Amino acid sequence: MSTHYLVDLYGNPLNTSSIIDVREPTNLQTITNGTFIIRVPDGASVQKPANLGDLITKKFAGLLAFYAGFTRITFDDLIDPSGIDTSAVGTLGTFGQRGSIQLYPGGVLTSVVTPLSGGTPAQVVVTWESFTLTSSDPKTDRFQRTYTEVPSSPSNVTCQVSFNGGGTFHTAVDGAVLNIPIPDQGTNFVIKLTNTSTGRLGIGSWAVIY
Q1: How far apart are CA 58 and CA 175, in angstroms?
Q2: pTM tops 0.85
């Protein structure tokens, strides 16, 4: 079961935004009014983060520790679009800050070329998060926005990764080991996530563990 950290939607500077609440929803849903969600997956240990920046550091350190045998991790928390190549073919969505990155049906999120440190990996694990944000505004009650986890399965999101700057791509399955053929190995990482669902889909973060 994932843990949802509710972060102040209006914190400034963004990196030091306050954590307002912490929840472990059994139905995979959290009402986000005035906050945005940082999701920590089951198995990634996080202890008493001081603020958003500390939470992100501890989240991905915990994720790396979960995948025994791997020693390095590269990630994008996607709290802003700075790591996205918005000029790439197929880009279709909204690319804002504070957990607001969403893909329209058929839309593609392509990262900028991201250097991997510490040598050329032959095996990796790629993981990412997907979610929906829905709003309700009934006449007799207050406006609410709800974050709902969505499985990172091919019916929702497909993933392709490249280690040679986009020269060749390989299909990755969320959380599964991917063996990289020798001719395609390298340290210039690119990830492409495609919304294969019929509605808008949020992308919360991605990581490559190696």
Answers
A1: 19
A2: yes
Instruction: Give tens-digit pLDDT for 42-96.
Output: 989 999 999 999 999 999 999 999 999 999 999 999 999 999 999 999 999 999 9
Do 66 and 175 contact (CB within 8 A), yes or no? no
Tell me the sheet residues that pair with 39: 4
E strand spans, the chain: 3-8, 19-23, 29-31, 35-40, 73-76, 93-94, 102-103, 108-110, 114-115, 123-136, 144-150, 157-162, 170-172, 177-179, 188-195, 201-209
Any bridge partners for residue 19, and if so which?
7
d(CA 188, CA 173): 20
Q: Which residues contact 160 (CB under 8 A, 6 or more apart)?
A: 169, 170, 171, 172, 191, 192, 194
Residue type, 147: Y
**Is omega for the bond preceding 25 within 30 degrees of 0, making it cis?**
no
Spatial distance between the Cα atoms of 113 and 83, rounded to a whole number of angstroms = 9
Helix, strand, or coil here: 29?
strand
Contacts of 143 (CB under 8 A, 6+ apart): 33, 135, 136, 137
